[in-house]
Amino acid sequence: MKDIVETTVTFSLNGKDVTVPEGTTIWEAANGRGLVIPHLCHKPEPGYRPDGNCRACMVEVEGERTLVASCIRPVADGMVVKTDTDRAEKSRALVVELLAADQPAKPHDASSHFWDMAAMNDVSESRFPAIEQARVPLLDDSHVAMRVNLDACIHCNLCVRACREVQVNDVIGMAGRGHDAKIVFDQDDPMGASTCVACGECVQACPTGALLPATVADTTNDTKDFDEEVESVCPYCGVGCQLSFKVKDGKIKYVDGINGPANENRLCVKGRFGFDYIAHPHRLTKPLIRRDDAPAKGLNVDPANIHTHFREATWDEALDAAANGMKGRGREIAGFGSAKCSNEEAYLFQKIIRQGFGHNNVDHCTRLCHASSVAALLENVGSGAVTATFNEIENADVAIVIGANPTENHPVAATYFKQFTKRGGKLIVMDPRGQGLKRHASHMLQFKPGADVSMLNAIMHVIVDEGLYDQQYIEAFTENWPAMKAHLADFPPEKMAEICGIDADTLRDVARTFAGAKAAMIFWGMGVSQHIHGTDNSRCLISLALMTGQVGRPGTGLHPLRGQNNVQGASDAGLIPMFLPDYKDVTDDGVRSAFTDVWKSGDFSNQKGLTVVEIMHAIHDGDIKGMYILGENPAMSDPDVQHARDALAMLDHLVVQDIFLTETANYADVILPSSAWPEKTGTVTNTNRQVQMGRPAVPPPGDAKEDWWIEVELAKRLGLDWDYTHPSQIFAEMKLNMGSLDNITWERLEQTAVTYPSLSPEDPGQPIVFGDGFPRPEGRARFTPANVIPPDEVPDAEYPHVLITGRQLEHWHTGSMTRRASVLDAVEPEANCSLHPRTLRDLGVKAGDYVRLTTRRGSITIMARADRAVAEGNVFVPFAYVEAAANILTNPSLDPYGKIPEFKFSAVRIEAAEAVAAE
Ligand SMILES: Nc1nc2c(c(=O)[nH]1)N[C@H]1C(S)=C(S)[C@@H](COP(=O)(O)OP(=O)(O)OC[C@H]3O[C@@H](n4cnc5c(=O)[nH]c(N)nc54)[C@H](O)[C@@H]3O)O[C@H]1N2
Ligand SMILES: Nc1nc2c(c(=O)[nH]1)N[C@H]1C(S)=C(S)[C@@H](COP(=O)(O)OP(=O)(O)OC[C@H]3O[C@@H](n4cnc5c(=O)[nH]c(N)nc54)[C@H](O)[C@@H]3O)O[C@H]1N2
Ligand SMILES: [Mo]
Predict the structure, then answer these.
(1) What is the per-residue DSSP string for 235-298?
(2) Atom in ligand 2 nearest the alpha carbon of residue 657
(3) Distance from C-alpha of 609 to C-alpha of 632, rounded to nearest angstrom
(4) Is the pLDDT of residue 636 over 60?
(5) Is the peptide bond preceding residue 757 cis, with omega within 30 degrees of 0?
């Protein structure tokens, strides 16, 4: 836990008294007063420990014989420090001059920190002899995203700290001594052959250009690397990393992380190197209308034959066609909005469906994602959002990560989790698959897929049995405890061990560890939510946190790691069939009228709408005949996707608004080309409830337009009286009925991120909520007991194996963006699945060969990798690859509360592809 009481010290800095908190270094104290002492190995940014190895920041301390490195020396009471003496200045300049001697004649990075510091010391060249030519290290260009030019390396150790201490990836090290010292990747592999995950933290940290993004290294560098910097938010995941797009000649050249509340300058491979999808030749640049003589609808359009299916149209023509096919058709039209677009765009989308068609058949990918978690949270805690930011793990001593794989899917959040373990925090990982956090875990529970409830109930049983629960907390803040306690009696660990595959002693140890924590957090993901008992899984996690009183304080809380960059915001904005913005019940007359008053329109349906999978069924049933789909790719992301594709083909009018001609757009009648995230203005809300401003770095290509503009133009043609001319006006309207945005204004967001709830115009927002009760009757959270329910489809003789679907670091969902991002596609170019080496051996398949996977819904053929992390008899398939689409296989059965499909468990038959072909 952080120190709350702060003691201060006063010292003299260049003749002036300065008071700072104890422990502050001379460098920090000076910097805090606007005085920048030259520095090379020091990076004054969160996560970087000062190292004091380069001597570029030497200052004089009265009474000390030698100069001291200001970056590592803490100030002391009465200390007299001079930074500007002749001796200090000469010494610092000498350090830089000596290093400059060995720098390449032409810097790799003209705008590098090193040359800024040289200039600060009035050094432009060196009087010292350069390194012998024979000793100059060679260029290492083995990595697709980065270049290693060790001739510019000054051994400052920043890349080592970046890799080991900030991102905790442990790839870079320093080998050799003295003259022979050099940085190495793993056991001195070329960077491209090492275990590097390409987060690029080292590139961002390197002060000399020895490590550089390839996009910068590949160009002549006699000019500055960029013309303009635009601060925005990463377009990929729910972590919501703030970043700076470096724009050169109208294109994004590279990306740096900046100091956002969630990421503190860190990024992952997608955020840093995955941006060039926006410049891919497949970008839609003109509105398209299906030709009258087009072939039958199917998955049959590709860039080469686009014009046999579609013709280019003007915006007027395309918008008229889009609107005319939908206007006045009420319930025949349904909508899927987007969690990749802004809050304002999500709000407008649900408004179009509700105001324009009079019903609530509007949903988005949250249904396939955390819908069950949100159902359980709303039911038992009264709010669907996280109770604490993930960064609160800094204040925890125990954390559970269950059914989530953050090193690949929330990589920047994972850096904080790994740092937590380095500080001694106990990390309990629960996943049927060994995953990236395993080697950092104090407890790794590799249990049987689908058996979460049995495992969690057993853990809670022990907590009750051994009296480890927090009676005071339970009495003050919860309801239904007696029933919960009685229910748990039936789940002793010995009995549950058979079901979940974790022995009773381990379950007891985990129970004691979690219950004994001073502060503990629970993080979860799709492994928990994507089951027919997903809501029950979350209910258990909520109960576990409540009975141990681990909510509402620093370092405690419930945190479902939200997936899409704006799934929290899109859900908050009402892109949900049962809720208006801020989770207000659509069946409540007063709620609807509050909205229709603002919208100045008549009432709309008081019935909850249909969800994603239900809408596909309703198309097959002939009830829904047209759709408007914004920034979502159901022809790849829905379960039992052939059924979904057949549904899309049945529609008589499909409008798709996307940046690419996706699999879904293959079935469209009208395609509206939109701007990608780095091309537009709008706000997004991350997993931490932090609302942040996105800004355009480059213009959209061709005639592509911002999504909100397209929505407005379409609404006008549907007869709606909309006159927004800027997203800020939409945001202002949202605020009228969204208490969550109180005190958060567009103007504030232009300056800084704000976490909701924000209690005053100055409050940066509350990272932790519910310390003094819950937004439920009497302020009490509820225990809802859960029973053990098996997965919908258990293995049998015909389908004897278990299929688990999920994600990989480099690819985003349906691949539409990342398979068009050059670095990401180069790292993971081919559809692949993972199986245990013994499973492969039993099948007679070698790693790299192909397997045939068959479920009751269909078959795919896919390259197999050997991976000991996958349990025997299981297969893990990422769903990013159209040529071997995982969702051909998945089971569309739904959880009854969250209406989420069971993406994480299907019975499957695995065969050697060769054997099948020979039959
Ligand atoms: N690189 C990348 N990052 C992403 C995304 C992406 O597509 N690519 N998508 C984003 C989105 S929208 C989301 S929702 C998140 C999802 O992020 P995660 O929740 O981490 O996603 P998954 O990889 O689908 O599944 C997580 C884990 O669940 C485990 N699991 C499987 N079955 C079970 C089970 O029965 N019980 C339990 N407890 N665990 C099980 C799997 O082994 C897997 O390790 O990622 C976001 N980030
Ligand atoms: N088998 C299996 N299936 C799953 C899952 C799983 O774990 N296993 N996970 C589920 C989960 S958690 C999720 S969240 C869903 C995700 O499912 P989807 O949301 O359908 O997947 P994405 O590929 O993210 O689709 C986003 C679309 O938005 C487009 N896009 C990107 N930026 C913009 C923009 O600025 N404007 C517009 N108009 N379009 C844009 C992209 O090109 C892409 O077509 O998949 C679900 N499906
Ligand atoms: Mo998701």
Answers:
(1) SSBTT--EEEEEEETTEEEEEEE---TTTTT---HHHHH--GGGG-TT---S-EEE-TTPPPSS
(2) 38
(3) 18
(4) yes
(5) yes
Structural domain spans, the chain: 8-84, 321-369+566-755, 384-560, 801-912
Higher per-residue pLDDT: 919 or 280: 280
Does the structure show a pLDDT above 70 at 1? Answer: no
Q: Is the pLDDT of residue 198 over 90?
A: yes
- CA atoms of 784 and 793, how far apart (whole Å): 25
Which of 526, 528, 531 maximizes ligand 1 atoms within 8 Å of its Cβ, making it the mutation to test the pocket? 526
Cα–Cα distance between 390 and 555 in angstroms, integer?
A: 9
Task: Tell me the C-alpha distance between 568 and 574, whole Å.
Answer: 10
Q: What is the DSSP-derived secondary structure letter of residue 129?
A: P
pLDDT score of 390: 98
One-letter amino acid for residue 223 of the chain: T
Using pLDDT thresholds of 50, 70 and 90, give the confidence band for residue 418.
very high
Are 904 and 805 in contact, with CB atoms under 8 Å apart? yes
Contact 795, 905 (CB under 8 A): no
> Does the pLDDT of residue 221 top 60, yes or no?
no
CATH code of the domain made up of 8-84: 3.10.20.740
Q: What is the mean pLDDT of the chain?
A: 96
Among 3.30.70.260, 3.50.50.60, 3.40.50.740, 3.50.30.40, what is the CATH number of 321-369+566-755?
3.40.50.740
Q: Which two tokens stand for residue 771?
A: 């310390």
Residue among 808, 705, 827, 823 nearest 254 (CA): 823
Q: Which long-range contacts (CB under 8 A, 24 or more apart) does 179-183 make?
A: 179/135, 181/155, 182/137, 182/150, 182/153, 182/155, 183/150, 183/153, 183/155, 183/159
Residue type present at position 239: V
What are the pLDDT digits (tens) for 125-140? 888 888 777 777 889 9
How large a percentage of the chain has pLDDT more than 70?
A: 99
CB 586 near ligand 2, within 6 Å: no
pLDDT, tens only, 440-481: 999 999 999 999 999 999 999 999 999 999 999 999 999 999
* CB-based pocket (< 6 A), ligand 1: 237, 369, 402-405, 408-410, 430-433, 435, 449-450, 452, 525-528, 563-564, 804, 806-807, 809, 811-813, 904
Amino acid sitting at position 883: E
384-560 CATH, one of 3.40.1190.10, 3.40.228.10, 3.40.1180.10, 3.40.50.150: 3.40.228.10
* Span from the CA of 814 to the centroid of ligand 1 (angstroms): 14
- Is CATH 2.40.40.20 the classification given to domain 801-912? yes
Q: Which amino acid is at 582?
A: D
- Which atom, in ligand 1's list, is nearest to the CA of 404? 20
DSSP state of 2: -
| pLDDT for res 784 | 98
Bridge partners, residue 585, by sequence: 579
